[in-house]
Specification:
Glycosyl_Hydrlase_16, 12 strands, 7% helix, single chain, Jelly Rolls, mainly beta, signal, five-stranded antiparallel beta sheet, ConA-like_dom_sf, binds 2-acetamido-2-deoxy-beta-D-glucopyranose, globular, 2 helices
């Protein structure tokens, strides 16, 4: 489960399905939970966007990741003037520590940005992306 938003506020729940028509909650990630159940990926953008993904400590220090109560906010830096030839804007990308197979995911996202230069997203992939496919959720 991955998130790479530029300014997203959300909570999410993961529900495991059984063969019967009932579902049981297996995991519920709300607000500050994301700081321990998801990992910030400080990696070059796999899709070659002009962005600089930072680790959790940097994201928290720069308030690009903010968690409190039932709220998680992830955003891109909007204050720094970038060099035309330098690295891209600091932003965040996180993935869940836990891997899910058969499941239902429920997201409660209060806001996702739109506009030029934004690419907010929530998606799921197999270990061998793109060969195992991708589910784009939001
Ligand atoms: C960090 O972001 C939150 C949410 O937008 C805001 O309430 C808070 O004041 C910010 N903290 C700092 C130090 O700017």
């Amino acid at each position: 489960m991955y998130f790479s938003p530029l300014s997203v506020i959300f909570t999410s729940s993961f529900v495991v399905s059984t063969l019967a028509a009932t579902y049981q909650l297996s995991d519920n990630h709300v607000g500050t939970d994301f700081l321990s159940t998801f990992v910030h990926e400080a990696i070059p953008d796999p899709t070659h966007g002009r962005v600089n993904y930072v680790d959790q400590a940097t994201a928290l220090a720069q308030n690009l990741t903010f968690a409190s109560g039932n709220t998680l906010i992830m955003r891109a830096d909007s204050k720094t003037t970038l060099s035309a030839s330098g690295p891209g804007r600091n932003s965040v990308r996180i993935h869940s520590n836990k891997k899910y197979t058969t499941h239902v995911s429920v997201f409660d996202i209060r806001h996702m940005p739109q506009g030029c230069g934004t690419w907010p997203a929530a998606w799921e992939v197999g270990d061998d992306w793109p060969n195992q496919g991708e589910v784009d959720i939001a």
